[in-house]
Amino acid sequence: MTFSRPRIYADFNSLTESPRDPSKSMVSLHGWGSLQALSNAGIRLNVGIRLLIYDASDETEDLEAEATAYYDAEAAPDLAIMVEGKRPRTKGSLPG
Predict the structure, then answer these.
(1) DSSP three-state, residue 4
(2) Which residues of 65-82 are buried (b: 16+ CB within 10 A; e: fewer)?
(3) What pLDDT digit, counting tens, does each position of 5-39 carry?
(4) β-strands 50-56, 7-9 pairing
(5) E runs forming strands in the chain
(6) Secondary structure of the chain: what % helix, strand, coil (to 5)?
(7) What is the pLDDT of residue 42?
(8) What is the distance between the alpha carbons of residues 35 and 59, in angstroms, rounded to a whole number?
(9) For the whole model, what pTM was predicted?
(10) Please, which residues have CB within 8 angstroms of residue 85's CB and are 6 or more apart in sequence?
(11) CA-to-CA distance for 55 and 34, rounded, in angstroms?
(12) pLDDT digit string (tens) for 35-92?
């Protein structure tokens, strides 16, 4: 049995290289849109939760990435749950 990952909005403008693994990217989930999406989905972030994060900017810049939440007090002490995962895919590279 497979479980789908919750699909949560993330502002990819905050995308940076993960300090834990330079081959991965990191984005903060402390923005209003992310917090609203988490609340609407009834998700309480915990370290290790797996998510599908997306940013639907416009028809040419839709981004999506599989991600795992982790805690990084130095990167965002106000709300320090970040997600890291594979590099985001653009709309043209998304399946379907």
Answers:
(1) coil
(2) bebebbebeeebeeeebb
(3) 888 998 888 888 777 777 778 888 888 899 899 99
(4) parallel
(5) 7-9, 16-17, 25-28, 50-56, 62-71, 81-85, 89-90
(6) 15, 35, 50
(7) 93
(8) 24
(9) 0.72
(10) 24, 25, 53, 65, 66, 67, 68
(11) 10
(12) 899 999 998 888 888 888 888 766 666 788 888 888 766 765 444 455 666 555 555 5
Q: Tokens for 48?
A: 């290790």
Buried b (16+ CB within 10 A) or exposed e, 9-25: bbbbebbeebeeeeebb
Instruction: Evaluate whether 91 touches 59 at the Cβ level (below 8 Å).
Output: yes
What is the token pair recorded at 38?
A: 């988490």
Question: What would the two tokens of residue 42 be?
Answer: 């009834």
| Both tokens assigned to 45 | 């972030």
